[in-house]
Design goal:
The structure holds 2 protein chains of 2 kinds. By secondary structure, chain A is an alpha+beta fold. Chain A is 40% helix and 15% strand. Chain A contains 13 helices and 7 strands. Chain B is of the alpha+beta class. Chain B is extended and about 80 Å long. Classes of the chains: A alpha+beta, B alpha+beta.
C-alpha cells in the first residue's frame, strides 16, 4: 500500500530548474526547435503519437523536446494532455485502400497490381555511418521523380487472394457495430478483436516486438509472411452532427501491415491462410509488423491452437503492453514508500524476535530435561 | 476545378470544406491576399475549440471497426449576416478555424460563390493535388522489380 507523503517543496522546485538546465545542455550549442524535431525526427514523433495514442506531430515534437528524447516520458505527456480535451466524436472508419501511397511492398507476392514501391526505407541501406551528416549544412538531397505517379488503384494484397477463398475473411460483423473504447470502458476478458486491436495500437513497440520475435522463434507456432506493408497518407472523414454530411478534415500518415499465416485447417474450416493486422500512426513499420504478428497469435483460441505460449495469452499480452501503465507501476517504486517499508521492517523484526524466543524457550526446556 | 461538384450543393460544400481543412492558415492568407474580397463582420457563434476525434480503423482494412487512437482537431462556428459557417480540421490552429468558417459563410452566398471557388478554393485544391502528385512520383521512382534466383542450376 502506498501512503502519501508531504513536504519537499523546495527540493522539488530546485529539481525542476535542474532538469530544465540539464535538458538545455551546453548553452553554447544552439537550442533544438520543435519544428526541427517535427521535420527531422519523424520516426521518433510517430512512436510518441502511437504510444501516446494521439495524432499531433507538433505536440509529439514538443513532448520529445520536453522529455529530452525519452519516448516513454513523451508518450506520457501526450496521454496526460489528451485527458484535458473534450472528445468531438469518432471519424468515419479510415479507408487504407484509398491511401496516397508512399511505400507498399509484399514479401509474399512478387507481381502485384500497382507494383512494389520501396518508398523511404532503411531496408536496403548498409548501416554504415554517414559522417557527412555530422558536418551539417549540406545541400538538401532532391529525390528523383518518375514521369508518372503511382497507379490510383492499389488493392490490398489479402483482398486479391481473398477472391479464391484461400484467405481468412475479414468482414464487419452484422450491423457494423461501433467499437469498444478502452479509454472509457476498461477491457474485459476474453476481449473482442476491437478491444485487442486498440490495446495493441497503444502498446509499447519494444514489448510487442519481443513478443512477435518469440512467435517467430517457435513460442507461438506461426510462420508469418509480410503479405503487405503500406505507408502513406489517408484522409480523415468526419460527419459532424450540426452538418449532417461527411467532410474531410485533413490527412494523417499511417502504416498498415497485413501478415499472412499458415493454418492447416480444422473439422469445420478447410486449410487456408489466416491473418494478423497492424495499423500505426506515421511511418512505424516495426510497430505495425509486431502488432500484426501478435494479433494473429492472439487468435490462437479461435483456431483451436490453444494458448500455450506467452504471445497467445490475451490477458498477459494486453495487460502488460501499455507503455504508460507499465512504466507508471514500475517507476512508482521510486516514490517514498517509507511507511510501507517501516511496516515490513517491523514485521521482520517481530518474526525474528518470536523465532529467537521460541528457540530460547526450547533450549531451556531441553536443558531442564537433561538435568 | 473539373471535379468540383458544385451542381449538388451539399457535395460542393463538402468539397470546399475539405479543401479548407487541408490548407494551412498561411496558404489561405496568401490566396486571400490576391483577391479583392471585403472581409465581412464576423459574429462568433461557437469560438474555435480544440478537442479530439477518435480515429476508427477496420481489422484487416475492411473488417470489424476498432479505435486506432485519437487525433487533435479544432472546430468553430461563425455567422455572417444570416448564414452560419463551420470549420472542422485536424490540428490545433484556432485562427485557421475562424478563417475557414468565415470562408464557409461567404461560399454559401450565391453571389460570391463562383468567384471564391475560382479565387480561393481552386488554387488551394491545386496546391494540394500537386503536392500529392509530387509525392506519388517520388514514390514511383522507387518502384522495384525483384528477380527470383533459380536454385540448383
Amino acid at each position: 500500500m502506498y501512503v502519501a507523503v508531504k513536504g519537499g517543496e523546495a527540493a522539488i522546485a530546485a529539481t525542476h530548474d535542474l532538469v530544465a538546465q540539464a535538458r538545455r545542455g551546453n548553452p553554447n550549442v544552439p537550442e533544438i526547435g520543435v519544428k526541427q524535431i517535427r521535420e527531422q525526427m519523424k520516426l521518433a514523433t510517430a512512436r510518441v503519437m502511437n504510444e501516446g495514442s494521439l495524432y499531433d506531430e507538433d505536440l509529439a515534437a514538443l513532448a520529445l523536446k520536453q522529455s529530452q528524447g525519452d519516448a516513454v516520458e513523451a508518450a506520457f505527456l501526450m496521454r496526460a494532455y489528451r485527458t484535458t480535451l473534450p472528445r468531438f466524436g469518432s471519424s468515419q472508419p479510415l479507408d487504407t485502400g484509398a491511401m496516397a501511397i508512399r511505400r507498399r511492398i509484399s514479401a509474399a507476392f512478387k507481381d502485384l497490381p500497382g507494383g512494389q514501391v520501396l518508398g523511404p526505407t532503411y531496408d536496403y541501406t548498409h548501416r554504415l555511418f554517414d559522417f557527412a551528416l555530422a558536418a551539417e549544412g549540406g545541400a538538401p538531397v532532391q529525390a528523383a521523380e518518375a514521369q508518372e505517379g503511382l497507379d490510383q488503384h492499389m488493392p490490398r494484397v489479402p483482398d486479391i487472394l481473398g477472391g479464391e477463398g484461400l484467405m481468412e475473411e475479414e468482414i464487419a460483423p452484422e450491423g457494423d457495430p461501433a467499437p469498444n473504447d478502452v479509454t472509457r470502458d476498461p477491457a474485459e476478458f476474453p476481449a473482442d478483436r476491437d478491444t485487442r486491436l486498440q490495446m495493441l495500437a497503444r502498446g509499447d513497440e519494444g514489448f510487442l516486438l519481443g513478443l512477435a520475435y518469440s512467435v517467430q522463434r517457435g513460442f507461438g507456432g506461426n510462420h508469418p509472411f509480410a503479405g503487405e506493408i503500406r505507408m502513406g497518407e489517408v484522409a480523415v472523414g468526419f460527419c459532424p452532427e450540426e452538418l449532417g454530411f461527411e467532410i474531410e478534415i485533413g490527412d494523417i500518415t499511417l502504416t498498415e501491415c497485413q501478415m499472412i499465416n499458415q493454418f492447416t485447417g480444422s473439422a469445420e474450416v478447410p486449410p487456408q491462410f489466416t491473418r494478423g493486422y497492424g495499423l500505426a500512426f506515421g511511418q512505424s513499420e516495426r510497430k505495425a509488423m509486431s502488432m500484426a504478428i501478435v494479433d494473429r497469435a492472439l487468435k490462437s483460441s479461435e483456431f483451436g491452437e490453444g494458448a500455450t505460449y506467452p504471445a497467445q495469452q490475451e490477458e498477459f499480452v494486453l495487460y502488460h503492453c501499455d507503455t504508460i501503465e507499465a512504466s507508471g507501476f514500475v517507476e512508482h517504486l521510486k516514490l517514498p514508500h517509507y511507511v510501507d517499508f517501516q511496516g515490513e521492517l517491523e514485521l521482520i523484526r517481530k518474526i525474528r524476535r518470536e523465532q529467537e524466543e521460541r528457540r530460547a524457550q526450547s533450549q531451556i526446556e531441553r536443558e531442564g530435561a537433561d538435568a | 476545378m473539373d471535379d468540383c461538384r458544385i451542381g449538388s450543393p451539399q457535395e460542393g460544400r463538402a468539397f470546399w470544406m475539405g479543401v479548407l481543412a487541408h490548407a494551412s492558415l498561411k496558404e489561405m492568407r496568401a490566396a486571400l491576399a490576391l483577391t479583392q474580397i471585403e472581409w465581412p463582420t464576423v459574429e462568433v457563434v461557437k469560438p474555435a475549440e480544440v478537442g479530439t476525434l477518435m480515429l476508427e480503423g477496420r481489422a484487416g482494412g475492411g473488417g470489424r471497426r476498432f479505435n486506432a487512437g485519437e487525433a487533435t482537431m479544432t472546430r468553430c462556428i461563425v455567422r455572417v449576416g444570416e448564414t452560419l459557417g463551420f470549420s472542422y480540421a485536424l490540428g490545433r490552429d484556432k485562427d485557421k478555424a475562424v478563417m475557414a468558417a468565415t470562408l464557409d459563410c461567404l461560399l454559401q452566398d450565391a453571389d460570391q460563390q463562383s468567384y471564391l471557388m475560382k479565387a480561393i478554393i481552386s488554387p488551394l485544391a491545386m496546391i494540394q493535388s500537386r503536392k500529392r502528385e509530387a509525392e506519388s512520383r517520388r514514390a514511383a521512382a522507387t518502384k522495384v522489380e525483384f528477380f527470383t534466383m533459380v536454385r540448383g542450376d
